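WARN retry 2 of 3 for item q-0093 after timeout on previous attempt; input resubmitted unchanged.
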Amino acid sequence: MSGGGQRGDAATGRRDNDGRRGDGAARRRGDSESTETVSEDSGLNPGDIVVIAYLVIIAVLILIFSRRIEYWAWLCAAHFVVIALVISLGKLADPPIRVPGSPPLPLSPSPSLRVLWFLRGWYPLLLIGLTYKELTYLIPRIHPRDFDAALAAIDFRMFAVNPTVWIERFTWPPLTEVFQLTYSTYYLLPVILGVVLWRKKRFDCFFFWVFVLMLGFYLSYLGYIAVPAIGPRFLPSIVEAQSKPLTGVWCFLPVRQMLDRAEGITRDCFPSGHTEITLLVLYYAHRFHRRAFWWFLPFGIGIILSTVYLRYHYVVDVLAGALVAAIVVVVAKPLFGALGGRALRRA
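OK item q-0093 returned
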C-alpha cells in the first residue's frame, strides 16, 4: 500500500511539475494570468445573482406599468420561470473539476453533469439576446419618450456641430464597408474571450468574465429604459442636415439591413453598449489573455470609431458607455467577492 502511495505521490508530483511547466508556457505564449482553475461552489454564483436581480427589476417595472403592457402577466410569469431555472441549474450542476477542499469527484464526470456544467457557464449569453429583444416591446410602454433631441443638443453644445454631419466629409465607401463589418464583430468578441478561457479550463476567470459581461450588459439595458433614444440616423433634424447617404462597396447595405432586422428599433443608444462592452473585452483580455488582447485591439478600436461614423450613436452615448465600463471595472472585483465569488489571483 505504501509503495502505491509513493507511486501516486510521484505521479502527482510529475503532474504538478507539468502543470508548472504548462503555466510557464502559457505565460510565454502571452497569458498574463495563471492557468490554475477554481471551481464554483454548487449553488448560485455571482453571474446568476446579476441575472436574477435584473429579471426581478424588469418584472417590477412590468408590474408598475402593467396598464400599458398588454402581456404583462405572461412576461412576469416568464421572468419567474427563468429565475426558477437559473436556481435549479445552480443546484444541479456541481463542478466537474477538482480543487483542494472540495468533495471527491469521479475521474470522468457523467455526460449529463458535463452538459449541466456547460449550460451553467453559457446560459447567460443566451439570456443577453432574449432580454435585449424584450426591450423592443417594453421600452415604449415603460418610458414612451425618446431623448434623441436632448442627446443631439448635448453633442452640439460640445462640438458646435452635429458630429455625424461633420464626419460625413471623411466618408469613403471602402472605409464605410470596413467599419460596418467591424461594427458587427461586437457580437463575437465577448464570446470569443469566453471560449478562450473555457478551452484553457480557466474556469475562475471564465465565471468572473461572465459576471462582468452580465453586469455590463444589464447596466446598459437599464440605461436604455431610463434614456430611450433611436440614434442620429433617425432624428429628422440631423437626417435633413446630412448631405450624402452612407454607401459601401459590396456588403455594407445587406449587413446593415440584417442588423436592423435582428435588433429591431430598441431605443438602445444611451449608453453605447458597443463602446462599453468592447472596452470591457479589451480590458479583461489584456488581464487574462494578452495574446487575445492584441488580436481584439484593432477590432475594438474599429467598433468604437464606427459607432458615430456609421450614425448609430451620438458622441455623448460613447462617452457614457466608456464611463459605465470604467465603473464596472472598479466595482467588479469587490462586488464579485461580496456575492460569493472566489477571489482571482492577480486579476
